[in-house]
Amino acid sequence: MLNKLLVSTEAFIDWSGRTVSWLNLLLVLVTFIVVVMRYVFDSGSIALQETSSYLHASIFLVGMAYTMQQDAHVRVDIFYARCSKQTKAWIDLFGAVFLLLPFMLFITWISWQYIVDSWSVLEGSREAGGLPGVFLLKSLILAMTCLLSLQAFTQIARNIITVLNVDTGDN
Question: Torsion over CA of 163, 165, 170 and 171, rounded to 10 degrees?
Fold first, then answer.
């Protein structure tokens, strides 16, 4: 049952990362349009400019857990790369339990009122002609903490299994 839960959670994080990765294409297109409008037509659009910022933030906030799942985040591998599978599991277990999860709790705690205040006024852009959904963008901070916490819990479970050398029937 634990293995099914882990697989389901990892599938959801994989899906969210792959889905949000398509926003990169849209980001390139919007940025191209902004540049062409500015330098070819000597015109601009605050909404388009903000769209590129929103897309960029969305890609990073939602994609963090996927990046962690794929082990593609930035890491200093000077010692880690030479470690055994068991030692790596211990390092990852320690990092998730004592660093990542407390940090996600802290981010949730300090951003909660910030997001609630934004929702209470349905905050929009401060710029005339800007986008109205700033409160939605700010909500992605909580989505990021939830997704990263879910990924941390799956990694904690997987690392405990590795440390204890438990056969989960994955073979």
Answer: 130
